[in-house]
């Protein structure tokens, strides 16, 4: 697989008193033609990594290559990389087509070629009908499309997108998520997308890098990140998770035999663990509720919350800890549990995952 971007021991310290270590030591490979997402909470270093790739900032140390060649001596304008910013940065008094043409004209592209590409780009983002409208007079979603078209027009090898959907309302954001994925597939350009929204990352990405405190905690496909979170931070940041203390009895290959707080035994994904006391991560939708405390763990049903699509059951386990279980609703099946009931929990072998820390 061709590597679009390779970062090795990439570090960035912003000078100041005290200095800020925005990136500690990043190692990552981003493949050509990949929708790659940097996901993490505010301040974890996502934008800094993007700015290093774009060339707006210089690393303190480390290596940064694009298609096998060092990027470090190339000024931003010489990198075949474009950026779509959160605020779009369009020229409000120029029309849609003028905005899209702007970058191409700056590059000295011949007039006929500019016209053809602008037409093609407007079609790609479905904005042809508003070609002559000033961008100050179109909606936020439409501005987003123009910003994308403008960034894609010079056919960059890599497109950087810094929280480009955050200004849009919920419905439009959902729609644009699908559009972005379509645009990436249709153009074949490598997209590096920054977000702190885990759902956005899970729906659009080929792979995700989960970041915290200037470090990458895990890189994987959305399903791997969700089903097999490497550590507590990832399990907590992505989706909802129950954390259960457990004791390791034995490990065979990828499977750990564990004893739960109740004394009952269960198999879980070992995640390379070797300690004797571990924490298990279990998703709320992977557990089942039983009556009368039967199953692996027992407790009392504290709250039942109906959400339309599913119902959340809040259980206080016998060791005093909280557990949340989610069950999809069905029009033909009633909820046969009530607050105060003595309940139990079961989950299949392999549903839970041992966490690294
Ligand atoms: N120019 C700068 N000078 C000093 N510190 C900076 C500068 N830019 C960012 N930082 C700091 O570096 C760290 C990483 O910032 P960065 O903007 O990369 O995070 P982020 O994950 O993109 O956050 P957000 O989601 O809030 O945009 C933060 O602690 C931030 O305060």
From TrEMBL:
Record-level Gene Ontology MF annotations: ATP binding
Catalytic function, reaction form: ATP + H2O + polyamine-[polyamine-binding protein]Side 1 = ADP + phosphate + polyamineSide 2 + [polyamine-binding protein]Side 1
Residue ranges occupied by any ABC transporter domain in the UniProt entry: 5-238
Assigned protein family: Belongs to the ABC transporter superfamily. Spermidine/putrescine importer (TC 3.A.1.11.1) family.
Key words of the record: ATP-binding, Cell membrane, Membrane, Nucleotide-binding, Translocase, Transport
Highest taxon, organism lineage: Bacteria
Assembly information from the UniProt record: The complex is composed of two ATP-binding proteins (PotA), two transmembrane proteins (PotB and PotC) and a solute-binding protein (PotD).
Pfam families in UniProt: ABC_tran (PF00005), TOBE_2 (PF08402)
Protein name in the entry: Spermidine/putrescine import ATP-binding protein PotA
Keyword Transport: yes
Keyword Chloroplast annotated: no
Alphabetical list of InterPro entries matching this protein: AAA+_ATPase, ABC_SmlMolc_Importer, ABC_transporter-like_ATP-bd, ABC_transporter-like_CS, Mo/tungstate-bd_C_term_dom, NA-bd_OB-fold, P-loop_NTPase, PotA-like
Group of enzyme by EC: translocase
Protein function: Part of the ABC transporter complex PotABCD involved in spermidine/putrescine import. Responsible for energy coupling to the transport system.
Its EC number(s): 7.6.2.11
């Amino acid at each position: 697989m061709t590597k679009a971007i390779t970062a090795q021991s990439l570090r960035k310290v912003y000078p100041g008193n005290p200095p800020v270590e925005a990136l500690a030591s990043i190692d990552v490979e981003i493949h050509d033609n990949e929708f790659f997402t940097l996901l993490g909470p505010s301040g974890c270093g996502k934008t800094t990594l993007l700015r290093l790739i774009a060339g707006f900032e210089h690393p303190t140390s480390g290596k940064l290559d694009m298609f096998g060649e060092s990027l470090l001596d190339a000024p931003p304008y010489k990198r075949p990389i474009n950026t779509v910013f959160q605020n779009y940065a369009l020229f409000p008094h120029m029309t849609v087509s003028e905005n899209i043409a702007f970058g191409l004209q700056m590059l000295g592209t011949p007039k006929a070629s500019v016209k053809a590409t602008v037409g093609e780009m407007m079609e790609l983002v479905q904005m042809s009908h508003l070609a002559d409208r000033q961008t100050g007079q179109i909606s936020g979603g439409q501005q987003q499309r123009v910003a994308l078209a403008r960034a894609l027009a010079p056919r960059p090898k890599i497109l950087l997108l810094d929280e480009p959907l955050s200004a849009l309302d919920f419905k439009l954001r959902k729609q644009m998520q699908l559009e972005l994925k379509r645009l990436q597939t249709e153009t074949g350009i490598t997209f590096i997308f920054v977000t702190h929204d885990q759902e956005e990352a899970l729906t659009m990405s080929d792979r995700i890098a989960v970041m915290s405190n200037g470090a990458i905690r895990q890189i994987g496909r959305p399903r791997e990140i969700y089903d097999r979170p490497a550590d507590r931070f990832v399990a907590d940041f992505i989706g909802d998770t129950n954390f259960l203390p457990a004791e390791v009895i034995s490990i065979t290959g990828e499977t750990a035999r564990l004893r739960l707080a109740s004394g009952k035994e269960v198999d879980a994904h070992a995640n390379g663990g070797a300690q004797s006391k571990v924490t298990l991560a279990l998703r709320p939708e992977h557990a089942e509720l039983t009556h009368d405390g039967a199953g692996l763990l027992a407790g009392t049903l504290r709250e039942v919350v109906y959400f339309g699509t599913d119902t959340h059951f809040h259980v206080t386990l016998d060791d005093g800890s909280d557990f949340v279980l989610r069950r999809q609703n069905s029009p033909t099946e009633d909820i046969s549990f009530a607050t105060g009931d003595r309940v139990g929990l079961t989950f299949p072998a392999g549903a839970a995952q041992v966490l690294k820390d």
